Amino acid sequence: ALAIAQAVDEALRSETSRPSEPVASPPKARVEPVPPQAPPLVFAAAVAPALQVAPAVFEGARAALVAPGMVLRLALRSASFGGSLGVAVTRPSELDFGHVTLRQFRLPVDGSVRWRLQAGELECQMDLGILAALVDYDRGSSEPGYRRVELGGRAGVTLGWGRRVVPWLGASVELLPSATALKVAPTGTFGHAPQLWLGVALGTEVRWP
């Protein structure tokens, strides 16, 4: 009986002194990287009173041509790049060629690519594109006038402040190499329509979203 008790005691001692097996830690959850999301597209509509000036550098002109009006521009862009479509409705004005005076109505429409820079609330937007201007020149007499579509290019820049409702100040340059040659019978050409237009505008742009 004593031998049996000693054997049981040694067996218990050996079980107590045996090192415990390490417990396996649960596997760590794998975190999948979130793919970068493209910035949402922004739609914008801008309206502004504007002033367009044709310097007296076109052939035959005696004075600069000044045409006040309104500008409407729609744009769709990402954070930095996009496109815009603009139209200007100007008041009829007079072209003075000395012995001949023409009354001009002009409706320029342009499509442009847009580049945008931003620093806080301040931003700068630059447009560059093509332009088509419907023009009507009326002599106010029995002689027929001129109605043409003049093609060219346009560059514009605006400075604005804000996020959703943005007041802005803009300037633009329009070049029209295809400006109309103005003629009268029987003497022929007496001048050309303006090939260079400079514009300034002060307006507001509203954006969604």
Task: Give a verbal description of the structure.
- There is one protein chain.
- The chain has one helix spanning 2-17; strands spanning 42-54, 65-77, 81-90, 93-96, 101-119, 122-138, 146-161, 165-175, 181-184, 188-192, 196-208.
- The chain is mostly beta strands and 209 residues long.
- A hairpin with a 2-residue loop joins strand 5 (101-119) and strand 6 (122-138).
- The longest helix is centred in the first third of the chain and has 16 residues, at 2-17.
- The model has no long low-confidence stretch (mean pLDDT 85).
Quick overview of this protein structure:
This protein has 209 residues and is mainly β. It contains one helix and eleven strands; from the N terminus they run αβββββββββββ. 8% of the residues lie in helices and 60% in strands.
Topology:
Blueprint: H1 2-17, E1 42-54, E2 65-77, E3 81-90, E4 93-96, E5 101-119, E6 122-138, E7 146-161, E8 165-175, E9 181-184, E10 188-192, E11 196-208
Antiparallel strand pairs: 1-2, 1-11, 2-3, 3-5, 4-5, 5-6, 6-7, 7-8, 8-11, 9-10
Question: Helical region count?
Answer: 1
Q: How helix-rich are the residues, as a percent range?
A: under 10%
- How many β-strand runs? 11
SSE pattern, N- to C-terminal: HEEEEEEEEEEE
Q: Given the helix and strand composition, which structural class is it?
A: mainly beta
Overall pLDDT level:
85
Kindly list the characteristics that best describe this protein.
single chain, 209 residues, mainly beta, 8-stranded antiparallel beta barrel, two-stranded antiparallel sheet, 8% helix
